[in-house]
Every structure is written in C-alpha cells, then in structure tokens.
Design brief:
- By secondary structure, the protein is of the alpha+beta class.
- The protein has a single domain, classed as Alpha-Beta Plaits (2-Layer Sandwich), CATH 3.30.70.20.
- It contains 2 helices and 6 strands.
- The strands form 2 sheets. It has a 4-stranded antiparallel β-sheet with strand order 1-2-5-6. It has a two-stranded antiparallel ribbon with strand order 3-4.
- The longest helix is centred in the C-terminal third of the chain and has 9 residues.
- The two termini are 21 Å apart.
C-alpha cells in the first residue's frame, strides 16, 4: 500500500506518494518561492510546515510538481481537476 501525504495548499489538493519518491529533489530545487517540500531524514519528500509563510506562486509551484521524474506529486485544483503532473 502506498504511503500518501496530502495537504490543501492555496486551494490546491496536493499529494505526495512517498513510496514512489526517489529523492531526486527536483520538486524542492524548483519550488520557486513556494517552499512547499523538503526532505525528511530518509531523503524522501515531505510537506514543509508553512505556518506563517506567504501564499505560494501557483505557477512556479505547479512547475515544480510537474518536474517530478516519477510523478510522485499529484495536484488537484478546487474543482477536483488534476493539474499536475
Ligand atoms: S521530485 Fe519527485 S522524486 Fe524527487 S524528491 Fe520530489 S517527489 Fe521525490
């Protein structure tokens, strides 16, 4: 069974399939000013604590999600439409 982390960020429902993630870090490097993801102690992507941080740049954030080489990050918009990958 997959280990899925899910959060709603700026109206987008974002999930990370942590079993798929291989720790390339593209989503972290390309996060723009989003700063949504970070590595845990195992080198797998997790959500960063965004308390007090400004709203994300949605386009930069989606580009970062789409850059995942194994499509471990799935983003749905407010209508439930998949916008990444
Ligand atoms: S880009 Fe994908 S594989 Fe790389 S760290 Fe992020 S979620 Fe994991």
């Amino acid at each position: 069974m997959s280990e899925i982390d899910e959060q709603v960020i700026s109206g987008l429902t974002v999930s990370i399939d942590r079993d798929l993630c291989v720790g390339f870090g593209d989503c972290i490097d390309l996060g723009g000013d989003g700063d949504v993801f970070e590595f845990d102690e195992e080198g797998i992507a997790v959500f960063r604590d965004r308390a007090g941080l400004p709203e994300i740049d949605q386009e930069a954030f989606l580009d970062a999600c789409r850059a995942c080489p194994v499509d471990a990050i799935v983003v749905l918009d407010g209508d439930g439409e998949q916008v990444a990958p």
